[in-house]
Design a protein that fits this description.
- By secondary structure, this protein is α/β, with parallel strands linked by helices.
- The protein is built from six helices and seven strands, in the order E-H-E-H-E-H-E-H-H-E-H-E-E.
- Strand 6 and strand 7 form a beta hairpin.
- Helix 4 packs antiparallel against helix 5, helix 4 packs across helix 6 and helix 5 packs parallel to helix 6.
- The longest helix has 20 residues.
- The two termini are 30 Å apart.
Amino acid sequence: MAILVTGGARSGKSGFAEQYAMRTASRGLYLATCQPYDDEMRERITKHRTDRDLTGFSWETAEDAYDAADLLNRWGKQFTDELHSGMEPPVVLLDCLTLWLTNWLMELEQQLIDEHRLEFEMDKLLEAIARYPHPLLIVTNEVGDGIVPAYPLGRRFRDEAGRLNQKAAAVCDRVFLVTAGIPIELKSQAFRWEQL
């Protein structure tokens, strides 16, 4: 069962996702997509790890900036085999989708990779999320509520993040919006055209 958790910066979405995960399984696998480009980012990563360790929950951390789809596919098979042997699968928490997108956009910009590669990678990740057979939480950012970015890459990021979030929400069983630390489940409250 895949669950998407979205919200703005410092909205409490990661904390909510971690709390949800700790109530879902006896252990967790944290898939971190952030790349430490500078000292401030390295400090943030260290703080996040320390905070997770202090919870007492059994977290294992995997860091990968690009290959979330391949990891989910591999883990899905691995944890299914373990489940058949009587071992409960961990909950996987992917944090976060928008950093994963940032990594790919920066790679495309720097390496001059084919423009269709991003769409391919997004589809590949969405298919992996949809197929993943065990508890999975995905954190993402709502970025389209602010001003229009002044530069082309910023506008592209905003647009691609909006599209990716919509597609991820469509394949997830539940979607939470976290604002000011308050989570609201959206899918159960979503408007349906047949209600007209």
